[in-house]
Amino acid sequence: MVLGRALHFVFKVGDRARTVAFYRDVLGMVVLRHEEFEEGCKASCNGPYGNKWSKTMMGYGPEDSHFVSELTYNYGIGGYRKGNDFLGITIQSSEAVSNAKKQGWALTEDKDGMFVTEDPGGYKFILVNKEQPKADPVLKVTLAVSDLQRSIDYWSNLLGMKVYEKDDAKKQVLLGYADDQCKLELQDIGSPVNHASAYGRIAFSCPREQLPGIESQMKEENQKILTPLVSLDTPGKATVEVVILADPDGHEICFVGEEAFHDLSQVDATANKLLEDAIAEDKSVEWFAKYHVPKPSA
Predict the structure, then answer these.
(1) What is the pTM of this model?
(2) Which candidate, 106, 124, 73, 105, places its Cα nearest to that of 295?
């Protein structure tokens, strides 16, 4: 049984400055850590790109106890084509609703009384208009699937997630590793899942000793392994080991060794300045503006 813990979702962002501002000024998150890399990741953390890139972790608190967002920025790439794979992150925060209204950010109220908005890259957020809890306000991540029962078999039977709710009429299921963690909601859309180039990745931690077993089980079950067990270095920080999988609809899943990740994921007091300095020094943004060149879509 996988002893998993929900960690973060990886977003590829084209406009780093505006996206960070949305997370900070609308959602109310803070910068937890920021890292710059000179070349692409061995586990394709930044997508299929070999260029310079950065990773900015933002959330409502430390990743030890909160589900956070990883904003991945590839220098020189201003946008990504979105598919139908990512359906939204649900956050309980009347403060975020209020922030969006004050700043004139587009909000749409749905039939359940919740508010729907999008970040600058077009990624969807569902805001529950209730007081933000002291615990993690990030409630769930919703992903599209093409065959609900097949996905339940994968996520529950193979990866050990508990089924919390199942709605056959809506073709939805809610899964998770623990009551106090962000949940994974799967929505059957009745058609193939298209990831386009904006596809993300959901990450979980588990005891390091379980990683080889996860890899072996996926081989035995003829499931897709995108990156076999590998070590990833972060300059000046802990080296972590990961296995990257893909579910039956191609959603990328990262399992990382908990012990080293605990050290890597500690909040960095200098993160906000590191990010601000990187944004100020980013010449690609200045170049696009100066020559009025449309930002490319990957």
Answers:
(1) 0.94
(2) 73
275-283 contacts, C-beta under 8 A, 24 or more apart: 275/20, 275/31, 275/34, 275/56, 278/34, 278/36, 278/54, 279/16, 279/17, 279/20, 282/16, 282/75
Q: Tell me the C-alpha distance between 121 and 81, whole Å.
A: 10
Q: What is the pLDDT of residue 113?
A: 79
- Number of other residues whose CB lies within 10 A of the CB of residue 113: 9
**Residue bearing tokens 């769930």:** 140
Using CA atoms, how far apart are residues 207 and 8, in angstroms rounded to an integer?
A: 17
Task: Find where tokens 């990624």 sit.
Answer: 123
Taking alpha carbons only, the member of 188, 141, 182 closest to residue 166 is 188
pLDDT at 53: 95
Phi, psi of 73 (to 5 degrees): -120, 120
Mean pLDDT by 10 residues, the chain (298 residues): 93 96 97 94 92 96 96 93 98 97 93 90 96 96 98 97 97 97 98 97 97 97 97 86 97 96 93 94 62 46
| DSSP structure string for 101-138 | HHTT---EE-TTS-EEEE-TT--EEEEE-SPPPSS--E
The SS3 of residue 141 is strand
Please name the amino acid found at residue 83.
G
Of 67, 37, 23, 94, which is closest to residue 237 (Cα–Cα)?
A: 37
Contact (CB, 8 A) for 159 and 2:
yes
- Coil/strand/helix, residue 11: strand
- CA-based Rg of the chain, rounded to a whole angstrom? 19
Give the model's pLDDT for residue 289.
Answer: 52
